[in-house]
Amino acid sequence: MLIPLEHILIFSTLLFAIGVYGVLVRRNVVGILISIELILNSVNVNLIAFSRSNALDPVMGQVFAIFVITLAAVGATVGLAIVLALYRIKRTVYTDEINLLKW
Amino acid sequence: MVTLAYLIPLFPLLAFAFLIFFGKRFGDKSAWVAIGASLLSLILSTPFVMGAVQGQIFVHHFEWLRIGSALFLFGFSIDALSAMMLFVVTVVGTLIIIYSVGYMHGDPRFSRFFAYLSLFMASMLSLVLANSLLMLYISWELVGLCSYLLIGFWFEKPSAAAASKKAFITTRVGDIALFLGMLLLFFTTGTLELRNLNHEFLAPFASQSKVLTLAGLLIFGGAVGKSAQFPLHVWLPDAMEGPTPVSALIHAATMVAAGVYLVARSFGLITFFPDALLPIATIGTITAFMAAFIALTQTDIKRVLAYSTISQLGFMIAALGLKGYGAGTFHLMTHAFFKALLFLGAGSVIHGTGTQDIREMGGLWKKMPHTTFTFLIASLAIAGVPPLSGFWSKDEILVSAYESGMPIFYYLLSITATMTAFYMFRLVFLTFFGKPRKEFHVHESPAIMTIPLWLLAIGSALVGLPGSPWMNHFFQTFIEGSHGAEHAINLFVMGISVGLGAFGIVLAWLLYLVFPAVPEKLGAIFKPLYLASNRKLWFDELYQATVIRGWYALSSALAKFDLGVIDGLVNATGIGNLRLSDIQNWIDIHIVDGAVNGVGALTRGFSSALRKIQTGFVQNYLIISFIGALMLLFFELRK
Amino acid sequence: MDAVTSLQYFVPELIVLGTAFALILLDLFVSNKRLLILLGVLGIGAALISVRYPHEPLSLFFGFFVLDPFSFFFKLASLGIVAITLLASLAYKPPLPYSGEYSALFLFMAFGLILMGSSNNLLMIFLSIEFVSILSYLLVGFLKKNPQSKEAALKYLLFGSTSSGVMLFGMSILFGLTGSIDLNMIQARLLTAPVSQALVVATILLMMVGLGFKISMAPFHMWAPDVYEGAPTPVTAFLTVGPKALGFAIILRILHTSFLELQSEWSVFLSVLSMLTMTIGNVIAISQTNIKRLLAYSSIAQAGYILIGLAVSNVIGVQGVLVYLIAYALTNLGAFLCVIIVSNHFGNDEIESYAGLSEKSPFLAFCLTLFLLSLAGIPPLAGFIGKYFVFASAIEGKFFTLAVVAALNSAVAAFYYFKVVRLMYLVPAETKEPLDHPIPLFLALIITLAGIIVMGVWPSPFIEFVSRALIL
Amino acid sequence: MLNHLLSWIVFVPLAGAIVILFFPKSMTQWIKWKATALCGFNLLLGCILLAKFNPNVTDIQFLEKASWIPQIGVNYTLGVDGISLPMVFLTLLLSCLACIGSFGIKEREKEYYFLYLLLSTGMLGTFVALDLFLFYIFWEVVLVPMYFLIGIWGGPRKEYAAIKFFLYTLAGSLFMLLGILALYFYSSPHTFDMTELGKIAYSRTFQQFVFLAFFLGFAIKVPIWPFHTWLPDAHVEAPTPISVLLAGVLLKMGTYGFFRISYPILPDGARWFQPWMGVLAVTGIIYGGFVSLAQQDFKKMIAYSSVSHMGFVLLGLAAFTQDGLNGALLQMFNHGTITGGLFLLVGVLYDRAHSRDLNGFGGLGVKMTVYSGILIFFSLASLGLPGLSGFVSEFLCLLGTFQVYRWFAVLACIGIILAATYLLYMIQRVLLGPLNPKWSSLPDINRREIFTLVPLMIFILAVGVYPKFILEYMAPALTALLAKLNGIPF
Amino acid sequence: MLPILAKLFIYGVLFLSLVAALGVVLLPNIFHAALCLVGTLLGIAALYLALQAEFIAVVQVLLYVGAVMTLVIFAIMLTHRIGDMTIPQTNKQSLPACLALFAFVVLIGGLLLKTDWSILVGTGGSVASVNPPVDTFMLGKALLGEYVFPFEVVSVILIAGLIGAIVVARKD
User: Which of D122, D217, D358, E162 is most buried, judged by most C-beta within 10 A?
Assistant: First the structure.
């Protein structure tokens, strides 16, 4: 491995944090969805890194990562479908304008 | 055969039960049930009285209640004192019931009246016969109940309704004292049996004199309530709201005397722990004097008699307190007769004139000869004119006071005796003599009323004789048993007493018949004194202002407290919950704001900027959750 | 066990999947769409019949699907819950669009729930949770032209995806720490390898974010009221019960398989969260005016009670989680069935609509009252048995503060449950027009009602069932 | 049937309730009579129970035991002893009378009688259950019908009163549940059986805590000052027959709990709490009396008088003496009959006048002679007139207390005076004085109403005149209890 | 020399990825943000290559950069309000989010750094590469062998998700 595991972990943690930040502050729902992709990617980075170093079975982490990517795709699909459906009714993609349900 | 004594109170009780359920159907005839019952009691009690006169004691009891080691026996024990009371209650009671037939004629609740009277007879008889203090207490309360019911018999009158309540509650204060005294006695000596209240039995408990003195005083407290002694005397004058036969029977002859009876009953206890004697004598004397003083200026015929009763009861109590056991009980008996007679006479007058105000009466003697004559006999008796009954008994009391070694008692009681003679004859002169001050269609009462009057008059005249030297102080020997004191005649006291009595009568004659204008002037001159007497020393006002008002004020204050504070607290927690809910809700609404404040780490300006954020905003939820998770992380990793 | 031999033990799941695919196909040909939902119910029924009690634990598909009494319990629970939900959906008004797909999605959901109950490694846990979540997002947003439904779906999706992202992050670190995704192996590795306990606890917490989201545990409960309110009522009924129950199953499995040695760590924060959850749920519920929202907060509070058993995690506590889940599932489904009938009639879910219900439809009011009483934990109904178990576990485990807080909470809870009861019985109705009870709803209502009464009066078989399920 | 007499007694009303559920609403007459007949039948069973009961035995009789939820050690255990028997009988009697008294209910009869019978089952079960779990279930079962009975058929503020009653009691009973669980888990082997638990010597601190938990549950039910505020509201708003049961039976459940659970199982805790019991009792007696005096509402006055009278029960309990315990138990019975009767009487008046304002009446003694006679009778019994039952029990309570806490007994006597004050004040305002013309056409009490009152009067009089006959049932069991309390192995 | 250059290159890529990620969350124009995401994803793919996970790298590029980004941009185009560029793209909770995340990074990062990962694998070296690189063949065998069950489950999820997505998003 070219770089120490710790550095990769720091990278993924930062990526995760940035992703969460995006989720927390992005007004646009699509923006939030792509921020979630950042989170999932940070997870994948971890998984791949660990599968090279610590895993009992090197395949394990990679397979996990593949499934994560797949489910991220499904999640994105479903999410975008819902966003589209909502946009059709409310003509908005801004979270702070989606507040019929409250209290 | 002895158990027949149970029947004595039972007959009136059955009469009561019969009358209360079926009385209405029998109308005027229902009275005869009551009369029959009390006659039966009278007849039944004769052998017991006779036996007691011969020195026999009848005892019988059964187990009423047993809780662990505490055993309560009910039954009767008839000794001299009970026999004397039995005699008085049955004789006077029967006569008064007969009299009532005439007096209550035409009343819509006629049968009810006799039902109550029967109940009273039953309770009073069981009080007299009771073998234990507990049973006595039970009967004691029951006579109180009858008194309540009968005072309020004409309950449509608000004053009667109020008076009955006042009577019951005031006496109940005394009853509580009695109750506590009873408990104290029970837990100290382990017995409530009245027969045990003698010196032999109490001897082992001599070391506990403080407790038992207190017990004695508490028992006396019961008598204070029941016998209308100072300071609980206020109920008795008001009790005159009841029908007059009731006043005669309950509030003159029997029930009020029960207090005296109780003190006489516990005489063994009181004398064994003599510290209690002085307070008793003092209360008695104060009552006697005070009541006589008030009686001087009353204008309501029954009220005069009521205060007179209080005064006479004070005499008896004082006598007992001055160790004049024979004197007190003797006066109890004589007083029962002449005071009953006085009340019945007054009843007859009221029946005839329709008023109770003596200022409106006058010159009734022509129209009501029987009433007048019997009334006069009774007045002479109470004024202590020899050889009528009152003379002998009152003289005994004065002798006791004289010999007590505390002259103040003697002086006060003597002055009281004078006042007694004065106010009684003021009453007699104003009512029956002089000129009629108002036109009435006066008529003499029917025979059914006058016959009891006459019978009682005979009694009033003669009942004192057994206690006179002519019969060798038979009564005193009888009542005090073998260990009774020697009775020498104190001629000095006797002379003074007769003189004072005569003085009172003459003074009354002068003031009310000869110079009828003088009393008013005197009243004006001694205005404070007059007012004090006329306004009954302001006892009612005082109690109203302090005790009663305080009582109700406390009550309403507590009620408000209950509604406001305790309930309020409960509701407040409920409201608080709602409030908390609102707050929580509000947090949900202004999530960031709330959370930010909650975290307390973010700047103020930022918080005010965040306030504008709308609700239902998913990223608010997310950040809350995220911060929550972070806090958990801190919480877990702080170690 | 390899994949082919595993299939013989996989019959119920295959039936469920087969029915689901069949429904998608049949949707093209069958015109009576209600029939499709009914078919879904029948499929579930068939699956239920084919379920066998595993006398010895089996690891199917190379250990990716475990068949043990615990998963058996949750399999039955999942199938039952989905069946009742489908029955409830049959009579929902307005009729649900795309009934075929709807029914199929629910069958997939049943499969997903079974997977959740049978997962024994991080990968399957992630997959099954994500599966159930994705289906849930879709079902919540199933109503056409209904902004609330779509909004709820979106909120659910955003919250859910983020939470599973956080959970995944935790899982990835755990994977790094132990080198394995198998729960048993993780436990073994944690015992032998010199791992930093702080980091392990941190990963537990990160995973609890995702799992806590599933069971609507505070502070990850915020989505629940909005989503429950916006979703179609049968879906709400399902969501308050199904994913929540299976969420508990997974938490139970993870904590008890991998992290039993760390119990002193997690039981503290779980008991704190338990108190927080029930208090928030109960207190906010008081001021609600919409019955669905009220029940939403109530279900948050109920999760708080169940968490007691989990936090204490003694034998009676773990039993309590399952017993409570049965009771809660029956009761909450029943309550939502009543809500469906009422909202079918009034077209809204306002609590005011319940005024005088006892006059219009005495049976319905009676049922709803019993359900609410059961939720409040009044004996002799199922809810009390559940509450008894969790209280008992707290007392036995000496979690006295927790017990007292729970007791106080129960009293508070009774207040808002009785708010509804009050309206039904104490407030006169404006009209006397009776409500109609569609047969499938009525049937489901009878099942749940009988369930809570029988379980309350004679809980023995249920407890027996639960204690058998806990032979892990 | 005789082998399972207690089960019959408990579940006959429940069976009746379920049957009623299946009858159409319109058959009101049928439902009404059926419910009454059931209550009467149950009372008959109660008489058989009374006849078959052996008063000389201290042990539990008519014991029925069956395994119910073996996994958590719950048994179905029923039985009566001298403590519960009077309560069972009282419950049966009042249920029957109040059922007849319910004929005045004119709306939603089906629901009413269903709930009424359910309530009966709950009350009876509470008194005969010997398994703590079962006890708790019956205890809670009482709450729900009560909520509805107050809430649906009550007065103007019924909703508030009903929910207040419900939440208050529920909160208390949840603490009791915690106490029950603690008893269970700290016994070995684990058991809910009250008799078995009575044999276990728990540590002192444990007993104190658990005693407090139970105390909360019971104190709210009794209600002991200051937990009493639900009572006036509930009483005032409840319909007459329900007030009767509330005062007559439900309040007894709380004090019964002390007799059945707190005292025998937690004697150390009880001893520790003894002085506070006394203080609360005396406070309740005086406080209740004073507040009662200030009331304008007839029912509220009687409600507060209940606080005062139940204070005597507590006082007797606090005494830890033979007399005190006997007095307390007897006072429970007597308060049930007396206050039950008073509530029936208020109901009679309310049905006619539709008012309970004490100040608004006056002079009814003229028009309603029989009524006033009966009212005076009950009032006198309530104020502790000797010869009537109230006196005997108050006397015993005071007798018991006097040995231990002399000043408490003295202070409690203020309560006796207060009782006279507020009751006579009530009589004065209602019956005496000039007749208020507004009420001049009120009919007197009718036969049905008299019929509901006469049995109570008979009991009041009988107990008052010769209390031994009822104390004979109670005394042996209480002797055993006292021995346990004083630490004598029994 | 070469390893150092490679190292520098990798670090540079990682840095740029982070910058691009920041762009994703910070850029006001959502379209730019999406493009930034592509950058991040490519950077991560490069990292995978460096970790010798070629298959994953390829999947990353194909699936993410290809499919997902297409979808995203498609959605942006469908829902974007033309001329709305002035609307702020971030909400007002950026500061608390910032602080919270800073705390999170410090906390978790600290824990991660404190952990001695080398001990866990028992090699003692600072740069641990104990596992051999996984080639595509091994992955394929695993996916259709040991991991066939999750693989099939994912396929079911995909179907169900797609059907559901169509139903939900469908115009009617």
Answer: D217
